[in-house]
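Bit of a strange request maybe. I'm writing a small parser for structure token strings and I need a real example to test against, not something I typed by hand. Could someone generate the tokens for this chain?
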Amino acid sequence: MSEEERKRDVHLPSAEEIQEELERVESIDDFFGRDGIFGRLFARTVEGMLEAELSEQLGYEKYEAKGRNSGNSRNGKRKRQLQTSAGDQEIKVPRDRNGEFQSTLLDTSRSSELEQKILALYAKGTTTRDIQETLADIYGVEISPATISAITDKVWPLVEEWQNRPLASVYPIVFLDALYLKLRSEGKIENVAVYVVLAVDVDGRKDVLGHWVSDGGEGANFWLSVLSDLQNRGVEEILIVCVDGLTGFSDAIGAIFPQTIVQRCIIHQIRHTLRYIIWGEQKEFMRELKRVYQAGTREEAEANLQVLAEKWGGKYPAAIRSWQNNWSELSAFFEFPAEIRRLIYTNNAMEAYNRQLRKVTKNKGLFPTAKSIRKLLYLAQSDIQKSWTMPIPRWAQIRNQLAIRFEGRFPL
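Reply from user aminoacidic:
Good idea to test on real output. This should exercise your parser:
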């Protein structure tokens, strides 16, 4: 058999055939999709590569005399479907008589392109049905819900590895908060708390240290287990931790990291306070409350708090007491310069991250298992953290201030 006949036999498209295909093009759509040029040529090219791979494994080319009585030989072909961005493509995979041929080409490239697209869509919170429709409309590929689930399940070892990875020994600033998602459990729909730890490392870069799913609601006891987990993963020092107003939070933090300064979120406190103030007086009350938390010094803030208490304490005692009873944690930020104050007196960094997570989870509505929650949140944070490449603003100045304030504890 001639060389030209051999090439035809392994289905490699010739230059002339490619030119003929190109001459039929009338629009860009003729290139892509299940019936496009790329799709038609793809199968023939892959088949040619498989034939060459089998020849290399057998040690002789097709129809060569030395293949006779070699102990193994070609044994026909089997059909196989490949999923690609050009649509489902049927190829013919050559077989050997001993059943030893395993193509490294197919093993390493099998549907990886589509898997990456599915994972990217899933990480954006796209529903299974929308993923199916997107792949069918754009790529001409039919993917079942079971296949999508199987593909996303492949990331589970990465989820476990990420959640249990070793951490840095020191984090200057850590934000603690929880968001709530709906979980189907034993036929019932429950709200579950997902505990989130967002840290700023010594280089000023944000990093999510983990997600923890609890079925018992948000509580100090569970936070204690979360903080213990951080310690077990290598965290020795947290300089400042920013929290909401959960009862017992400080005790849980102090039990694991006794030297940590706790700053209660001012925004959470304001929201809590305004629940006690009638609508018609909230504007006036807030104007005077701002003089407390926007004061230049702790002494000035305490004087303004006293004025606030004298004017409003009789009418709204619960609102005033909540500031007085938690003053040490509400006022911790006054110890620091303005750059650090702006960073820690609210949970804005955590609120922004949780807001992005909610965009991803809102389309899901209901999660079947805690594992499915962790899987989606892992993919979401992987996507979100791609934009966290730069340190937070003014970090060089903040770093110097932290090094002075926490001398001996902040790594130089």
